[in-house]
Amino acid sequence: MQTETTDLSSLSTPAALEFECQVETLVAGGVPWTAGLTDEQFRALVAPLAERAVALSSDDGRRERPPARIPFTLVVAPELLPAERAVALLQRRGDRAAGALAEARDEQLVAIPRGVAYLLADVVAGGAVPPGSGRSPLTAEERLAVTIQAAWAGAGATMPPAATCGARIGL
């Protein structure tokens, strides 16, 4: 399997640093090992998404974003990290929010990008999808990805079960 890498040092923006932080949070949490990859293989597989994350982010570091809005979240595809394994990783670390999120079944089908990972863009916590908004609900795996980032980064598992995103960006 051939992978391309991105030199994150050339992308010294708040969004690039956030992407790198999300990758390292997943590495520290054991996601590569759980997916049968080395840490370096995992980093190489997701690296191409760094530039997309930077391009997506309208957060230029000069203003605060609303607490219920996340510019992007790195999601590991269910083929690499099924929801059951993500829940097990959260529970092993003592996070209690995982069970409720994993039990929530997705009733609406959404198009998931192909590949080992993708980005959720413009994640907003809150209820139903407004008609004509161009937004879609998060899947159980995506809610777990947001929860993992919040819980493992020390912010606490604060993502409610209902959330939407503006787009899904693949490799």
What descriptive keywords fit this protein?
171 residues, alpha+beta, 37% helix, 15% strand
Topology, please?
Elements: H1 14-28, H2 31-34, H3 39-46, H4 49-56, E1 69-76, H5 83-92, H6 98-103, E2 117-125, E3 136-137, H7 140-152, E4 163-165, E5 167-170
Antiparallel strand pairs: 1-2, 2-4, 2-5, 3-4
Helix pairs in contact: 1-4, 5-7
The tally of strands reads: 5
In terms of DSSP E residues, the strand content is: 15-25%
Shape: globular
Helix/strand-derived category reads alpha+beta
Helix percent reads 25-40%
Oligomer: single chain
Largest sheet: 5 strands, antiparallel
Q: What's the average pLDDT?
A: 76
Radius of gyration equals 15 Å
User: Into how many domains do the coordinates divide?
Assistant: 1
Tally of contiguous helical segments: 7
Query: What's the N-to-C terminus distance?
Result: 14 Å
H/E series, N to C? Answer: HHHHEHHEEHEE
Low-confidence spans: 1-6, 59-65
